[in-house]
Design a protein that fits this description.
The complex is a heterodimer. Chain A is mainly alpha-helical. In chain A, about 45% of the residues lie in helices and about 0% in strands. Chain B is globular, with a radius of gyration of 21 Å. The chains are: A mainly alpha, B mainly beta.
């Protein structure tokens, strides 16, 4: 079970890099990661992916990618969308229930 | 040290109806360094761009959340680096407005009666990260909220000067932030006219006695006491009196809850469908903030904050036996019905080891926190009673 320090946060913080920013985020180095990084990082930092990783089934990732394209207007052609969906489902997804 | 478990572990006798889970945890976000986001002390980073950062729990040991620790939440990454207060303008217009206005910050300060109100600004999805099953979105812990003393002009006074017509249906608000891509729906929200005309709804230019931090909406944001933060438009630039329901994505598709699922009173009728309705007022809730530890035989104090949608907190009960019995706590200073209300409960630990503390807030209209999550696909309105573990040291 993880714990958190209710007090003493400031001391924790001082050991961290002050320059930490989104350039430090690396997606899993698996086939397709460059395509995913290129498409998603146009509008948002890549931390959204691990943040939602580990609990979305592949079809939920597909729904997310489709939402980005259809609702938010991400300029991702259909042939690229499939690769992105596959990468996310495979590397950040969980088995379907 | 303090553990914040999502849900109870089970085997809890009278409280066995509570959901069972070992999955953890509240503030497990990455701690960003001071000034990782300009003008802010260390916050818990959820995402860099757009910036989403939450307030660490220990900050809530204070009744008012300092500006430098106040959470940051954006949907879209087209955020101005800086806004020049001298050239900023607030445009008031629309079909239901007779006299359009073009207000400078100076005019807003000088031409309208200044009012102050203490109010909680809480993201609709605060605690989304604790949903079971988990749902997509920013995985907030408990810190996507804050309580501040806001100062500004009443929206109703501005709308009166603009001579809002009787046929107004909604008041639409927009801010200076925008999407990265032109085709992405801009973050634009609307309010029912009755809520816009509520005397507590203000156009705020000060927060805790200072200018608003840039990432909390400088120079001016809408403050909608009682309602979730989605309506509190930051970097406010436009107020529109509309004669039709606003049909943008952020009203029609986002920030909606299933009809009839939550015990909310306020309705937004012009935006309701048969199955879904816009989120409105916050549900009654509390957060335990201490003690960090305790010692056998020595007086200790459970403390925390409680808040609701503006009906007012009437009591917070505390349980030290996994919900079998509840004792009333003492309420702290009353900063108004929209603000955090502190509670404290004194006790003397009898045995060493892990002790589970629970708090349950109630409000003036008889609502109380729930034992089991009211699941909804967007993870809104999580006010489940949280078990919080403290370590009792032997004497």
């Amino acid at each position: 079970m993880k714990t958190l320090l209710l007090l003493g946060l400031v001391t924790l913080v001082s050991v961290r890099e002050a320059r930490a920013d989104e350039a430090s985020i690396r997606l899993l180095d698996k086939p397709g990661h460059e395509q995913v990084e290129g498409a998603c990082a146009v509008c948002h930092s890549l931390d959204y992916i691990p943040m939602n990783g580990g609990f979305l089934a592949p079809q939920a990732w597909e729904a997310e990618v489709n939402k980005m394209i259809k609702v938010f207007g991400a300029p991702i052609p259909p042939e690229d969308a499939k690769g992105i969906i596959d990468y996310l489902g495979k590397n950040y997804g969980v088995p379907p229930r | 040290m303090i553990d914040r478990r999502l849900l109870l572990k089970g085997g809890l006798g009278a409280a066995a109806a509570l959901a069972v889970s070992e999955r953890v945890l509240a503030n497990s976000g990455e701690v960003a360094a001071p000034e990782a986001i300009a003008g802010k002390d260390p916050l818990l980073k959820r995402s860099y761009r757009p910036p989403n950062y939450e307030t660490p729990i220990e900050i809530f040991q204070q009744d008012f959340t300092p500006n430098r620790s106040f959470f940051v939440r954006y949907h879209l990454a087209g955020i101005p680096d800086k806004i020049d207060a001298a050239s900023w303008r607030l445009r008031v217009e629309g079909e239901a407005v007779t006299t359009p206005l073009d207000l400078s910050l100076e005019a807003l300060r000088n031409e309208y009666e200044p009012v102050e109100i203490a109010a909680v600004c809480q993201c609709s999805g605060n605690r989304r990260g604790f949903s079971t099953p988990q749902v997509p979105g920013v995985q907030w812990g408990s810190g996507a909220m804050g309580n501040a003393l806001w100062k500004g002009a009443r929206l109703k006074d501005i709308l009166a000067k603009a001579e809002l017509r009787k046929d107004a249906v909604e008041i639409v608000v927009d801010g200076a932030d925008e999407p990265v891509l032109e085709q992405t729906p801009d973050f634009v929200k609307s309010l029912p006219v009755w809520k816009a005309l509520d005397e507590n709804t203000i156009v705020a230019y000060a927060m805790n006695g200072e200018a608003l931090p840039h990432f909390n909406g400088f120079p001016v944001r809408l403050v909608v006491p009682g309602w979730t933060a989605t309506y509190w438009m930051k970097h406010l630039t436009k107020i529109v009196g509309a004669t039709k329901p606003f049909d943008g994505f952020w009203m029609k598709s986002a920030y909606r809850i299933p009809v009839g699922k939550f015990p909310v009173v306020d309705r937004f009728q012009s935006q309701e469908s048969a199955t879904a309705t816009p989120i409105t007022e916050m549900v009654v809730n509390s957060l335990v903030t201490g003690p960090a530890s305790a010692r056998v035989g020595q007086a200790a104090e459970v403390s925390g904050i409680a808040w609701d949608g503006g009906y007012g907190i009437t009591g917070v009960e505390v349980s030290l036996d996994n919900g079998r019995s509840w004792q009333p706590s003492q309420l702290g200073p009353d900063h108004g019905r929209f603000a955090f209300r502190r509670f404290t409960y004194g006790f003397t630990p009898k045995a060493p080891g892990r002790l589970t503390v629970m708090a349950r807030a109630s409000n003036r209209i008889g609502q109380t926190q729930v034992n089991a999550l009211i699941f909804n696909p967007a993870g809104y309105h999580n006010n489940v009673i949280e078990p919080v573990d403290i370590m009792v040291k032997s004497n």
